[in-house]
Structure formats: C-alpha cells, structure tokens
Design brief:
seven-stranded mixed β-sheet, about 350 residues, six-stranded parallel β-sheet
C-alpha cells in the first residue's frame, strides 16, 4: 500500500473580520509534517475550537506567520517521533495544548511558570496546530490523555479546562466563598463543575447575556444566573471574567465584596468598548482593597495537574462535534455567542 504523504487541514492565509468574512479558513491538502529530533508526529483525532482562534483570525493576537493552521486543543495518537525523544512511544494517545514551547531556563520556567516565559510559543499561533490530520509537537509539551475520556471529551480539557483551572487557582477561593463567573462558555462551565467538586460549600453565581446560557448554568448547579451588568443577590469574594469585552470588567468589580479579587481569563480584550474603563468609579469599583489579576496563557504543569483532577472527578465537558470542514461554522457560532459547552472538530481518518 502506498504511504500517505498528504493531509487535510483548515488553513488561515490572512487576517479577517468574521462579521464580514464568514469563512476565513480554507480546506486544503498539505504535506504531512516531519517531526524534528525532539518532536512527536501526532495523528489528530479531535481538536477543540476556542475563542482565542477568533483573536488570531481578527488580529488581536495574530499568527507569527501565514499560512497558519490554528487549533490548540488537539488529541491524537503518536505515529512517529524524532531521534531525541526519550519517553513517549508510538501508539500512545496524547494531547497538545496552547503552550507549544518555552525556553526552560529563565526564572519563570525554573519556578514552574513557563506560561510567563519571554520565549513562550503558542500552538496554532506561532507553530501549526490541530485543525489538521497531523501535527508535530515537542515531547516536553505533550500530555498523556487519561483513558477515562473520549477524544472529543479530552480536547476542551487541554485549554478551556486547564485555563479554567489556572483561573480558579488565581482567585484564591476557599470552601464556602462565593464565586462569580462572567460569561458561560467552554471554560466557565468546566470551572463550575470543578467548584462543585472541590468546594462543595461554595455557591457559584453566573452572569451571561443569553437566557439559554443562564438556564444551562442553573442545570449544572449554579446558585443564581442573570444578565451581565446586573447586581448579584450577594457580594462575591471572587469573580472570573471570560468575556472578550471591557464592560463586564466594570460590572464585575461592582459585584465584588471588600477584599475581593477579579481574575480576567482572556488573552485579549476587544478595543471597541475600551472607553468603558473611563467609567470606573474608585469608591464603587476599586475601594476597599479590591484586586484585578490577569491570566497569562497556561503553564504545562496546569495541563498535567488539571487532566489528573478531571479524571479523578470525573469532569466530563459538554461538547458539540463538527467535522473538520465545518470549522468556520463552529468559529462563527462562537463569534455569535451560540455556545453550549465546548465545540470540537472531529478529524477524518
């Protein structure tokens, strides 16, 4: 039988506004990449679709070069490896997350915060990602997938789950504290499930624009759900904001109690409504030692720790599956906030 040399991939060739160009990715046949000495060749089975891909397409965090294959929540089987790969065997099922590489020697890397490394490189932005039948990845940044999860269940755990895990850690939440979630997409619905497992006495309050998202949050055990911008029934010790806009930041600060912390889980914020920051009232929004903390990327240790926790719970994400050629439709639905759980591309054999 003739050896396969080509693969199908959804490719981005230039920046685009999804409001005007509803199909920025094109389905193409490309050569299967060859792994470098310290890399694995992975046959992708599933790849999650993330809001960060919108930021890449629309230029808020643009790709390093074009063309680029997006996708940083890839699950697949190792089918080849470089000569310097010491541990991973062919046939292993693994996942590739947002962190593609870091220097390994700066003070951030040595402290376990490789997500803050100045040489941080991202999968699907700086190197080709998982919207393709095959991808290569450095062994040090590839993660074994627990048997508990199907391919499509595991994919969103690699980013939405791992970044939600890091966000939750950064809140400093203690059992019994009240947590707010602003926006209720792929990451936030996993955070709610984590909180119910790890902090059984903590109530979760969800702020979401769409009634369907509010109802979904209540189905998953939220104590309350309402529109973004409204007052919660009680002041909250912590809030995680996962929206792409500025206005919810102001609303979240208003809902924090004294000494509360807002954690912003967004790689970029949209520019169109940044003037909302000028409407901050010091006494209402920042007085009484309120804090704002950002989440920067995701560390490789976050992915490993979270996958172990997710298997222990077990934490099973709600997923919507799409064939690879329908990646543009999945992205557009995220753009239009038609979200219930996580969106996942299923790759052809």
């Amino acid at each position: 039988m003739k050896k396969q040399t080509l693969m199908k991939a959804m490719v981005l060739h230039q920046l685009a506004d999804l409001s005007q160009n509803r199909a920025p990715l094109t389905l193409e046949e490309l050569p299967i990449p060859l792994p470098g000495p310290d890399e694995l060749l992975i046959k992708v089975r599933a790849c999650g679709v993330c809001h960060t891909e919108l930021d890449e397409i629309e230029g808020r965090t643009p790709p390093l070069h074009f063309p680029m294959i997006l996708g940083h929540q890839a699950v697949g089987i190792v089918v080849g490896k470089g000569k310097a790969v010491p541990r991973t065997q062919t046939g292993n099922r693994v996942g590739v997350a947002w962190i593609a590489s870091a220097c390994g020697c700066c003070h951030h890397c040595l402290a376990g915060n490789d997500n803050l490394c100045p040489d941080f490189r991202a999968t699907g932005r700086d190197v080709n990602g998982g919207y393709a039948q095959y991808l290569t990845a450095r062994e040090d940044f590839v993660h074994p997938i627990p048997e508990r999860f199907s391919d499509s269940q595991a994919a969103p755990l690699l980013c939405a789950g791992a970044i939600g895990y890091r966000s939750l850690k950064l809140t400093g939440l203690k059992n019994g504290d009240r947590l707010g979630l602003t926006g209720f997409g792929s990451s936030a619905h996993l955070v709610l499930k984590m909180v119910r497992h790890r902090y059984p006495d903590s109530e979760v309050f969800v702020f979401a624009r769409k009634e369907a998202e509010q109802n979904f949050a209540l189905e998953l055990g939220a104590a309350w759900a309402g529109d973004i911008g409204v007052d919660a029934p009680q002041k909250l010790q912590s809030i995680i904001d996962t929206t792409p806009a500025w206005k919810p930041v102001v609303a979240a600060l208003h809902n924090l109690e004294a000494g509360g912390r807002l954690v912003i889980n967004a790689i970029r914020k949209q520019e169109r409504d940044k003037e909302e920051l000028l409407h901050l009232n010091y006494e209402t929004h920042l007085w009484m030692e309120k804090e704002i903390k950002s989440v920067a990327n995701v560390a490789s240790s976050d992915v490993r720790e979270f996958l172990a926790l997710a298997a222990e719970i077990p934490l099973l994400p709600e997923v919507e599956e799409y064939p690879l050629p329908e990646a543009n439709r999945a992205l557009l639905e995220i753009k239009e906030q038609r979200i219930r759980g996580a969106k996942v591309l299923i790759l052809p054999d």
